[in-house]
Records
---
Amino acid sequence: AQSVSQHNHHVILSEAASLELGCNYSYGGTVNLFWYVQYPGQHLQLLLKYFSGDPLVKGIKGFEAEFIKSKFSFNLRKPSVQWSDTAEYFCAVMIKAAGNKLTFGGGTRVLVKP
Amino acid sequence: EAQVTQNPRYLITVTGKKLTVTCSQNMNHEYMSWYRQDPGLGLRQIYYSMNVEVTDKGDVPEGYKVSRKEKRNFPLILESPSPNQTSLYFCASSLARPTGPGGANVLTFGAGSRLTVL
């Protein structure tokens, strides 16, 4: 069965710092990749997705992620964070061959200090 | 407005008292799914449904039941809740079959239902 690993459980940084969250998955076939964000007290929202094409995808709020197939990775980045980026971030992998099942990573809590 | 609606949003109950969390979507989505979110474990899939009358187990189905009698509704049933089912539950839906590049496989989530079993 596929699995998704997010290496950092908690990240604390100051405003204007750069952010990179790691995500690795275990599946050798074709995948769709997602990053979701959950702001405090809210439901999950899609940040960005990769289906095919350019492996560098840009999402909302200045976030981007790079799909590196050889490393089975889909790391999320933002050059300069803001206090409003405080949230929990989830990487997810979807395999069509598994009936559109979406497998989530354990999440990374990001706290941005003003 | 396109959305997934869950009820109740908050519930405190006692061990063994049957409860149902409802989920309804207005987007004519074929695929619906239930997840539970626990600290450090992310979201784990409980059950999913590819279409009406088609349901299947996810990763953590024990202690739960679902039904899909209508396309828009996908209730989650806890026949005899136990304290280890205390969690935050999310319902989500999407188009099961891709209609083109982009959004077909993107899940839309409900606002969540926080359940506490004493």
---
Amino acid sequence: GAGVSQTPSNKVTEKGKYVELRCDPISGHTALYWYRQSLGQGPEFLIYFQGTGAADDSGLPNDRFFAVRPEGSVSTLKIQRTERGDSAVYLCASSSGTSRYNEQFFGPGTRLTVL
Amino acid sequence: TQLLEQSPQFLSIQEGENLTVYCNSSSVFSSLQWYRQEPGEGPVLLVTVVTGGEVKKLKRLTFQFGDARKDSSLHITAAQPGDTGLYLCAGMDSSYKLIFGSGTRLLVRP
């Protein structure tokens, strides 16, 4: 029973570069969430998918951020023209559905550092 | 914008002491969850409270949801060094996303 996995675990890039962060949810989970956690803070919601469609992308900070989930399983968070302020841990979570009872299972995160 | 204020931000106590962490908001949430996060890992769910006034116990941890479903508390009895970690509260909004507090970093000294 594998949990949520995220790759890479660490990513160092230069300002202005493009990065992709991958999330493999728990098999069969229909909902997938992306959060961003800055040092000393709680996670901040970015976007969530129900199946293949983005059900709520209200947390994406600007149009440099984009996420896809083409087959309703693996998701990729894409960041264009990275800025130093994008440095954070990007967390992915999945759940078996969407209700106030559903537990979200988190991956270990990808630590992004923009130099 | 829904916000969750968590206090204290940092707590350092001696083994065997009791402590309470608070989570407050001006917004109503459909449920409230408490997580614990270790360095280099994602948050792990401890409990979900749904009903106003609900109290749940998990061994030495007691969780309470406020009557109006706007606030919550976590009480730990006889803290142990193994309780050390980052405790996060998170409210679930009407669109099923979690709004997290800023966390309470707990250190229990042997």
